[in-house]
Amino acid sequence: MIYKNIYFCIVDVESCEKVKRILYFLYQWVVFVPLFLLLTLITALLVMAMAPLFGSRFWGFYPPKWWSRFTCWLALCRIKTRGHEHLDPKRSYIFVANHQGAYDIFLVYGFLNQNIKWMQKASLRKIPFVGYASEKAGHVFVDNTSLAARSASVQRAKDQIVDGVSMVIFPEGARTHTGKMKHFKRGAYHIAFDLKLPIVPLTINGSYDVLKRNTLRQNPSKMELIIHKPISTEGMKESDIPRLIDQSRQIIQDALWEKYK
């Protein structure tokens, strides 16, 4: 009798999970996707119309910030953040974060509460409406076709980081395939070194489970954004950059959930 009851409990749990997956699949395509596309179009048009007229400091940040928040809420994700007390909203920073998935953008843009610009892959410029809106918002598309083009991209990034506006960069360069971190590239750290700006490590947990790379199937999960203490670059030498990379990567790594380490 005991084994029979255990069997029925297992079957019942599996059935409930299957029903939940089916219901969320329907919700995703009937509710989430249409509303997300509508919100994306409205946000892009708003930025495209207002940022050129009134500047990207407000119009390039606040509409996308609320678009990002609504996207997370529509996806039924539970959001947790900590570490905001480490930041001065009037100061510029270089934020470096691990890159678990597409929802990293929504989590950071929506819940960091700092006026930010992004360094993005050039291919994102081709997304209808969003690519053009991102350009008008002041985000920087990295052109790697030549050393001169890449240097120009870095200079455009530096031009955006003024008067309390910060830059967010994923040093891994691309989303992870496994949830675990990859090698960090040097670009973000050279910008911080050249401008004498603090590096702020950000640990992102959970977005890998919400939407894995190379899939369109979402899974409503908990996401966490951890803002670590800024690391000063004042008085640093260029030869100190490798140490800075290792230090910030280790800080991000230590705060990852165990399954991502």
Describe the structure.
- Helices cover 49% and strands 13% of the residues.
- With 261 residues, it is α/β, with parallel strands linked by helices.
- The protein has a single domain (2-260), classed as Glycerol-3-phosphate (1)-acyltransferase.
- The chain has a seven-stranded mixed beta sheet with strand order 1-7-6-2-5-3-4, sandwiched between helices.
- β3 (116-121), α5 (130-136) and β4 form a beta-alpha-beta unit.
- α1 (2-54) packs antiparallel against α3.
- The protein is globular, with a radius of gyration of 20 Å.
- The model is unreliable at 6-10 (pLDDT under 50).
Outline of the structure:
This protein has 261 residues and is of the alpha/beta class. It has helices at 2-54, 56-59, 62-74, 103-111, 130-136, 147-160, 187-195, 207-210, 241-254, and strands at residues 78-82, 94-97, 116-121, 140-142, 166-169, 199-205, 222-227.
